[in-house]
Write a structure and sequence with these properties.
Rossmann fold; alpha/beta; binds nicotinamide-adenine-dinucleotide; 295 residues; 48% helix; N-(1-d-carboxylethyl)-l-norvaline Dehydrogenase, domain 2
Length: 295
């Protein structure tokens, strides 16, 4: 297939590389020259704007951008995608954004005859490189089936979540729970160690007991408990605290719009905001344990 790809950052670049590896022709655009050059060297064609990508003979156009404001700009701006794209092109936004914006942009695409899916991902940069991402997809189910083979070149679990915006709903609900559970894991580990427990023994007990969760087992925030976790590497790499703060903001904003209480989610957002304001926004999100201890 011929595929347009806009947004070649930590996630988008390896995703576009996997499309090239699968034999697709890829037309790319990003604001950062070095990112474009890397894809060009791997065989992609460079374009000069989102509209220029949209004007190519493409079947599918994928975007992987930081936040809602960039998605609106790239799709709805003057040199944007919708102003230039042919009706036959299927649009897929894989950025993590709020469900309301995803629904607004999909409605504008539909009004001019374009099918659009929201398809945010989980699995991090490692999953993007390995082609093992989970895609949470919202939109028309028949359109989802058309997109599935292309998404499979970048991911392992491709899950249909319902109508437009529902991919983003699944993503914000999961990440809100992750933020809350990481803070809980940090508090519990710090309490136990402060009261005299060995961190590895404590984690071993939690992970065979009812307190067990992904944040205690796979990604424990206490240094030295899980050798491969960012906590054991000075909280470098992984999923940045500022990205978690963004996702908690999406969850609380979506909850406000829907008039649904998210008490723990709002508390988690404020704790990550505190952590970020202390200059730790670039650390892995499990570094939140620093709020409770000297780790
Ligand atoms: P990133 O900041 O590394 O990359 C975003 C890219 O978009 C950059 O290269 C930037 O230059 C480009 N961009 C911004 N505005 C643009 C515009 N107007 N036109 C063209 N390009 C533009 O971010 P990332 O880590 O790749 O994340 C992308 C999305 O995926 C975010 O919504 C993030 O929340 C989500 N996500 C990230 C991870 C992760 O572990 N990094 C995991 C899951 C989901």
């Amino acid at each position: 297939m011929n595929i347009g790809f806009i947004g070649l950052g930590n996630m988008g670049a390896p995703m576009a590389l996997n499309l090239l590896k699968a034999g697709h022709h890829v037309y790319v655009y990003d604001l950062v020259e070095s990112a474009v050059q890397m894809l060009e060297a791997a065989g992609a064609s460079r374009e000069s704007s989102p509209a220029q990508v949209a004007r190519q003979e493409i079947d599918i156009l994928i975007t992987m951008l930081p936040a809602s404001v960039h998605v609106k700009q790239v799709y709805l701006g003057d040199e944007g995608v919708l102003a230039a794209v042919g009706k036959q092109v299927l649009l897929i936004d894989s950025s993590t954004i709020d469900p309301q914006t995803a629904r607004e942009v999909a409605a504008q695409a539909a009004a001019q005859g374009n099918d659009m899916l929201d398809a945010p991902v989980s699995g991090g940069t490692g999953g993007a490189q390995a082609g093992t991402l989970t895609f949470m997809v919202g939109g028309d189910e028949a359109v989802f089936e058309k997109a599935r083979p292309v998404l499979q070149a970048m991911g392992k679990n491709i899950v249909y979540c319902g109508g437009a915006g529902n991919g983003q709903v699944a993503k914000v609900a999961n990440n809100m729970l992750l933020g809350i559970s990481m803070i809980g894991a940090a508090e519990a580990m710090n309490l136990g160690v402060s009261l005299g427990m060995d961190p590895k023994v404590l984690a071993g007990i939690i992970n065979t007991s009812s307190g067990r969760c992904w944040s205690t087992e796979v990604y424990n925030p206490y240094p030295g408990v899980v050798e491969t976790a960012p906590a054991s590497k000075g909280y470098a790499g992984g999923f940045g605290a500022d990205l978690m703060l963004k996702d908690l903001g999406l969850a609380t904003e979506a909850a406000r719009a829907a008039k649904v209480p998210v008490v723990m989610g709002a508390a988690a957002q404020q704790l990550y905001q505190t952590f970020s304001s202390q200059g730790h926004g670039k650390l892995d999100f499990s570094g939140i344990i620093k709020l409770f201890s000297n780790q």
